[in-house]
Amino acid sequence: MQVAPGEVVGLVGPSGSGKSTLLKALGAVIKPTAGRMTLGGELIYDNGWKVSDLRALRRDKIALDLAGGNRRALEALAARVDYQRYQLAGARLTLAGNIVTTVISRAGLATQIKVTENILLSQEEQLGLTGERVRLGQAAPDEVLALKTAVATDTNQPDRGPGAAPCRQCRLLSGNGRWRPQRS
C-alpha cells in the first residue's frame, strides 16, 4: 500500500478485519508482525523498527490525525489570527480617526483664537477712539466704561466666570488694565 503526501485514504471492512490494527501499525503504536514500511523514502520498519525513538517518529513524521482534531485546531488558530488581524486593523482605523478629529479640532480652536484676538484688537481700538471722543467732549465717560466692561468680559474664559485670568493667548497690559492678545 502506498499513500502519497496529501492523499486521503479510506479503510473499509467488516468488524474485526484489522482496520484499527493496520492504523496502529502504520502510526508506530504497535509493532507489526511482519512486513516493511518506508516513510518519505526512509526505511522505518523491516521486520523490526529501524528507528530508535518511536515517540519522535510519531510526533515529528507520522502525526496521524485520525479524527481531524489537528486540522480543526489549526483552523481554530487560523481563525483566531484572522480575528486578531481584524481587531488590529480596526484599532488602527480608530486611532487614525481620532488623530484626524484632534487635528480638525485644533485647527478650529486656532481659528477661534485668531478671531477672538481680532475682535479684542477691534474693541480696544474702538475703546481708544471713544476715549479720544470723551477727551474732545463728543462722548460721555460712561461709553468708555461700557466698552471697558465689554473688553474685560470678552477676555474672560466662559467656564471660569468674570474676573478670571485670561487665556494663554492674552496678557494684561500694566497701567491701563486692558487685555491685549499676544503676538506669536
Question: Which helices and strands appear, and what pairs or packs with what?
Answer:
Elements: H1 19-26, E1 36-39, E2 42-46, H2 54-62, H3 69-136, H4 141-155, E3 170-172, E4 179-181
Antiparallel strand pairs: 1-2, 3-4
Helix pairs in contact: 3-4
What this model shows, in words?
With about 180 residues, the chain is mainly α. The chain has two domains: about 1-65, no CATH class; about 75-180, no CATH class. The protein has helices spanning about 20-25, 55-60, 70-135, 140-155, and strands at about 35-40, 40-45, 170, 180. Strands 1-2 form a two-stranded antiparallel sheet. It has a two-stranded antiparallel sheet with strand order 3-4. A hairpin with a 2-residue loop joins β1 and β2 (about 40-45).
Structural class: mainly alpha
Return residue spans where pLDDT drops below 50 for at least 5 consecutive residues: 164-177
- SS summary, helix count: 4
Shape: rod-shaped
**Helical amount:** 40-55%
List the strand order in the largest sheet.
1-2
Measure the end-to-end span: 87 Å
Could you list some keywords that capture this structure?
184 residues; two-stranded antiparallel ribbon; 4 helices; mainly alpha
Short characterization:
With 184 residues, this protein is mainly alpha-helical.
